[in-house]
Fold:
Amino acid sequence: MSQGPRSGLAAVSSALLAMSRHLEVRDVLKTIVASARELLDAQYAALGVPDDHGGFAQFVVDGVSEEQWKAIGPLPRQHGILAAMLHQARPERLADVREDPRFEGWPAAHPDMSDFLGLPIRDGDEIIGALFLANKLRPENADTPDRKGESGCGFTEDDEELLSILAQHAAIALTNARLYERSRELTIAEERSRLAHELHDAVSQKLFSLRLTAQAAAALVDRDPSRAKGELQQVTTLAAEAADELRAAVVELRPAALDEDGLVATLRTHAQVLDRAHTARVTFASRGVRALPAAQEEALLRVAQEALHNALRHSGADHVDVTLHKRGPDTVLRVTDDGKGFDPTTVRRAGRHLGLVSMRDRAGGIGGSLTVESAPGKGTTIEMEAPGG
Ligand SMILES: Nc1ncnc2c1ncn2[C@@H]1O[C@H](COP(=O)(O)OP(=O)(O)OP(=O)(O)O)[C@@H](O)[C@H]1O
Ligand SMILES: [Mg+2]
Structure:
């Protein structure tokens, strides 16, 4: 197989194009290895990407049949000449790899190799892998691998240069793959946190009400069985709603009530339910607010729910008031309690307290803002502003 400069260029070009088409790193690496072997007339080619435990995270070979590969046995460890390529920054051309002092032998089924060309794959200063070629197939006796001859290593300086181009592209492919993997991990982490917030906002609140209602039913069952029955019906309703919310959180739907009744009616009902369930007086009032974009309605509802939930759970208030009104083009939600208040600067951001963080995220998510006004002994006001169009 003799190649003029033109067909050499065409082959490199098609190898590079093939790389850019493949998305899976392993496919890209396979293409690189196959191209290297073909372009440089080698009998064998391999590419290894080390792991952190002395082995290889990836080891791709070309020129070895499936059966041969199986017979060779487990993947090589990072030792001998392979290890050297991962630790030294320069290429290595050897007339006979078996005579190199670093050679440590190979498994019985390993193909015999003599002339050798190895090159580190680098990303900046870091060596992220190595490319190896063995047994140059000379054009004059292309069917049999060249054994060590007078000429020394069959691979030339030109070969080395060509291989270094491929190694640079392998570096890009590997770096991209790493970035892709990282961004995928980030997306998963974001998705997890969305779900955690969603579950916190919707489901844990429903379960909390459910627990209260069940307790009420238990307290009433001997004294006033018919009222206990009513509370138990409420338990059933709340359980069904919790199940709905759970489903919605998982598939990222907005609360069903919003679609049916809109924000104002949903908030009013919510306040009424809480008013009945708690000793505190819970009120709702709205002025001039009509239907809003779906994302805004959802964010406002979730923030109202959490603010109410916090007021009822933490403040010991006698009154909790929810209002919704217009301020210019913006919509303003306020949840005010006359409870014991707290110092917002001392709430630990991490750990188990998700509510305040989640409210901020919700407000920010629609381009709005959240203000927490509270001090010990002074009650609390949570205000959310949703921008108007
Ligand atoms: N209206 C309020 N009155 C008094 N203290 C409050 C009020 N709202 C919040 N807090 C205090 O701020 C803390 C943080 O609230 P946040 O909603 O972030 O978390 P949480 O309610 O403790 O837990 P989670 O909401 O994750 O179930 C609360 O633990 C409470 O001490
Ligand atoms: Mg909370």
The pocket of adenosine-5'-triphosphate (ligand 1) is lined by residues 200, 310-311, 314-315, 337, 339-342, 347, 352-356, 380 (CB under 6 Å). The longest helix spans residues 157-220. The longest strand covers residues 126-136.
